[in-house]
Amino acid sequence: MQNSCVVxxxxxxxxxxxxxxxxxxxxxxxxxxxxxxxxxxxxxxVGAVAGLAQDVRDPDSHRLVAEEAARxxxxxxxxxxxxxxxxxxxxxxxxxxxRRLVEVNLLGTTWGTRAALAAFGAGGxxxxxxxxxxxxxxxxxxxxxxxxxxxxxSLSMSVDAxxxxxxxxxxxxxxxxxxAMLAAQDPDxxxxxxxxxxxxxxxxxxxxxxxxALVGSRRVVRTVPTWRGGVARSAALAPGVMQHAxxxxxxxxxxAMRRRSRD
Length: 263
What we know:
53% of the residues lie in helices and 16% in strands. By secondary structure, the chain is of the alpha/beta class. Residues 3-167 form the Ketoreductase domain.
């Protein structure tokens, strides 16, 4: 029997890139997305076996996509990719935005991880949680987003230590990625400016490849690019420094955005 996998938030962006790569590897891929029509269309375009409407905030939605995957093969990989990226300081975010960030980014990943662990067979499998470089250090302007991604990293490390050896849980922490989520953020916000200050914005294909490369590996946390992980962790050791350096980095980001708009 063939292997199957689940990709949440798979209708576009990083999720679509992951789905394409997993299809190419021979997996029977089930795509879940809040936009069910887009999920079905993407599934048809990339050769996935199914595209379903899925609200990751609902634990039952994960069980349903797991059942669909089981109909097509042995579930061996699950990518918790669905996420939202509301930017803004904690004081400026609405209560609905805060709740959405926690429910989609953290609880959605939690329910997906639980569903995957329950659905893996005796041979085990891999859970890849798409977190963010923002989850590894202080990022003003992304405080609530960063908090949810830090929790995803912690969840991944802890659950990986809880599971038997045949089950592996990973957290992927990319820097800024050229997606609709990034494009929708406020260019005048310090969070966006700091993202653009870190060098070239990543391409979707690079992040999707890094996510798929974690399958079968024992690596628990991977940053993309690797060198940025060291920078983020160093900032976490001295968070007060970021308060003073943020203005300098934000100015670099504004210049990078202006160059991008001229290209």
